[in-house]
Structures are given as structure tokens and as C-alpha cells.
Amino acid sequence: QSYCHRLQHDMYFLTSTSRLNEQVIDKIVLQLNRVYPQILTNEEAEKFRNPKASLHTRLSGLLKHLQKKGDRHCQEFYRALQINAEQLFNDLPSRKILKTPDPTEIDTDKEQYMLNDRGPVFFLACFSVAAGLALFWYCCNSETKVIGRARRILGFSPIIIGRHVRNICMLYLEDIPRN
């Protein structure tokens, strides 16, 4: 969608029920007048900042003027609106249309979430089980003679694993040298 078309779509929303107050409109006009590229000339800026005209008339005139000038001018208006009235900018009807997803398009964020819906706790639990099984298999292997080292590691295990699991592992390690 072109910015001119979006501005035409948003025109009623912006001009209805005084959504923009006089200070915000003045800031937008000044920004369009002073910022490079200069969108409004000094005469045009004075015309749209004239306090003798009603706010609705000035805003309607500004929006129509920008639509006549072209897409670049309308784009700069949206940029000025975003800077000076961000909440209103986010509530624009054309922004809501842009935010709604196309039903035929794949939402990669949602798909990524669906692939990772179990979260970090599930990952840590699986990793802990795998590390525990690897340690258990390494300690029980008859070729390795590291039972004393394993006993020292498991002695500090109440910090890492529960007491019941530690007691079972310690009993098993004590039974291995007897056999």
C-alpha cells in the first residue's frame, strides 16, 4: 500500500473527535517544514499553523495537501506522526491492517514457538538425566578405576541432585568394590 492510500484511509480517523491536539499538529507541521527534505514551505507551514482557522480545517487541509504532493510527503507525515504522537500512530486503522497476518502466510514466530514450546526447564531436565546416565555408566564400567573420584563427586551432590538419588548412587558405588 502506498503512503498516500494509507493517508486517505486514515484521514477520517485522524480528523474525527479531536484525536490530535493543536500542539501536536504544530509540532508535525514544524517538523515537515524544518527537517530535510523540506516537505512544507514556510508559507504552507504558516497556513497550516494559522490559529484563526479551526483545528479540523487545518488538519484536513494538511492531509489533502500532502496527498497531492505525493508518496514521499505522506511518508514523512507518518514519520512525524510517529515521533510526536506514537500512541495515535500505533492506533491508526492502516497500521492495524498491516499488523494482521495474511492467512496464507506462515508465521515463523508462532512456528518457532510451537517447536520450542517445552521451554528451558524441559531442556535442563533432559540434559541432567543424560549427564547422570553418562556419569553412572562411566562409574560402572569395569575397565575404569575411578570409583574413589566418583564417590568424592557424589559426596557434593546434595547441591546438584536430591538426597535420595545420592544415597542410592553411594550404596551402589559401595557395593561395586565388594563384588
TrEMBL record:
Record flagged with keyword Mitochondrion: yes
Gene name of this polypeptide: Card19
Membrane topology of this protein: Single-pass membrane protein
Record InterPro entries: CARD (IPR001315), CARD19 (IPR043574), CARD_BinCARD (IPR042146), DEATH-like_dom_sf (IPR011029)
Annotated protein name in UniProt: Caspase recruitment domain-containing protein 19
Transmembrane regions listed in the UniProt entry: 120-138
UniProt-annotated location(s): Endoplasmic reticulum membrane; Mitochondrion membrane
Domain CARD per the UniProt entry, residue ranges: 38-96
Keyword field: Disulfide bond, Endoplasmic reticulum, Membrane, Mitochondrion, Transmembrane, Transmembrane helix
